[in-house]
Amino acid sequence: MGFDTDGRSDIHWWDTIAIRLALKETQLRRLKAQLAKFLPTDSPFLARLRVAIDAVSAQRSASPRPGRNAAKDVAAFAAVLIGRRDEALLDADALSDLYQTARETCDAAARREIDIAWSGFTAHGLSAAHIHTRLNATQIYNVVRHRLSIEDDPAIPSRRRKVIGQINEALNEKAPPVPVDFGSLLMEQISAARLMMTMAQILKHIDQTTPIRFLIAETESGFTLLATLWLSRHFGIRDDQIQISPLFETQSALEHGDTILEECFRSPHWRDYLRNNGRLCLQFGYSDSGRYIGQLAATNLVERLRLKTLELMRRHELTDIELVLFDTHGESIGRGSHPFSFQQRLEYFSPAYTAHLFKEANIRVREEAAFQGADGYTLFGTPELATSTIVTIAEHLSRETQTASSDPIYANPEFSFDFFSTIALDMATLVEDPGYAGMLGAFGPALIDKSGSRPSARQADGASVTRISHVNQLRAIPNNAILEQLGWWANVLQGLGSAAARHADSFERLSRTSRRFDLALDFARQALSHSDIGALRAVIDLLDPGTWLDRAANSDNESRRSQYMRLAKGLEELGFWRHLPPMYRHVQADHISLNSVWSHGLHMARDERILHAIRHAVIEEIWLLATRIPYFSPRNNISRERLLQLILQLEIPLALKKLGEIFPQYLGTPSELSFHEPQGARDDQGFMREHETIFRPMARLFDLLREISTAVMHANGAFG
């Protein structure tokens, strides 16, 4: 995570440089270990590697870090980094003569192994892996506004032409680059400028020839890419050292990505940049796009944008440029990859038809994919798994694509456009429904353990929890994980019923005859196998105060009736009942439409349904325990009613922390001082009974709830 600063304040520029140095040292040590098996100890090649490793190790040791990042510390680091950069190597090719000499002294078997090691080394340069920096488009706007006084917002269509003209004028000026040193980096406050300066220092002092991918999230305008180009040249980064890549993941970006690229292609500066660099890099995000417009619709838009990119490259005579297509995807249907075999997954996000068209146009295409989180364990966790994964990728790359156009889905562009647009529209409508945000945020984040290095969204402060009012306030990974826990994969299924009902005959025919369409429907099959409309309905009922009033009305136990009434009152005040039932009816109607058209026969397995039922019972028991919290005078704006609301949202750790402060378990024993009268009873037990009968059982039940969530996750085939 040392290179992804999008929305992060915990990654400093020195973290990025320290991690980059660690990658360099890892790469050098790996090459040395590989060569040491076949070369003598006194080999000049090994001797040079030892010098480089020693220098990089010293540079890493001098790196700034918390508590050692004052100006004097940074100056000391600069002295080591720059003073020993030649020893540490700045270009992988600087070792090529030593490599040639070494291989000439070996027999054929050793030469082969040395060639393999050298090939792996040169593929990545002076790093164990290629690196991608990442930030948000708004951060680019901020630095350009500050340094070029471009005030208009490029997101406003009426102002876009003006700002693109202004950035082209700035590129025309060809002003000499400003110098960058660690003093200026230490002083820089604007995040985009700081990241670009960090890259400049890496390219000057760590690896001068391996380009860095500069990924821009939420790219919505060609101005963003042109402004990034200006910024890189402003800090002296050569065109061949930076791969500027827009990330298309929002509905708007996927639908209008060709317009964004067209705005850049019209600029002679962008065309010059592409020719100097030799590559056009594009990245597509499935997790965010899928949660906003549905997984199926997002994939269709990604493929359409790829084909529109092909048309643009032809029109602007850029077919001699290599096209890099980077796809982000991860755990099963949650992040955009295929739910079944790895071979099907590659076929799904890298369709043969698209590959065939690029081949016909003589455009070199490099396809890249991210194996994020648990993908690393499931695909590369053992040598056998890793070998199988690599072999499958190799088989995919050698496939035949000539017959790809025979797939009937491509002969029905009207069906494809309307079918997937219907899904996108219906899912987008659901996303804007306040009931959908209410369902995800009611207690969803509390159902799962922390995912990734970023917070899910909800930040506790004192005794309050921020309620999300829109899906965009929740990150993609927890968003999808919560849907999984609610028992309904809305980001895959919503809108599919409406779309299938509009084209019932074509839907049924293409699901049988089109390989491409059938691969897409695999997502729906997986989602239906782990979704149950009854499980979702149970969640809605659980949050409905009417459910608890009905129980109170039918209870013969006065104490239990009082508990139900308290829960009903607490849920009434939380207000979920206002929006959840209409939202549920929207989902249910689409599900009925799907079942009327598609006789799939898929449903959630019995054991998984039981898990959801047990968890509902656990939640109810936690809530009933909450009604037994003794009355206490409000303190620091914390009342019994407020604690009940926290527990209704399953913010159990926070609630228990507050309860422990309000009802201490031990009061403490007074010292054996004389208080000048006969000694009274010393009661040091505090609120032991409350802890034993309410608080500790609540904690145990919450732990059980989280264990059930893990079981549900594994049942869905999601890991990590």
From TrEMBL:
Record SUPFAM superfamilies: Phosphoenolpyruvate/pyruvate domain
One Pfam family in the UniProt entry: PEPcase
InterPro entries: PEP_COase, Pyrv/PenolPyrv_kinase-like_dom
Job of this protein: Forms oxaloacetate, a four-carbon dicarboxylic acid source for the tricarboxylic acid cycle.
Name assigned to this protein: Phosphoenolpyruvate carboxylase
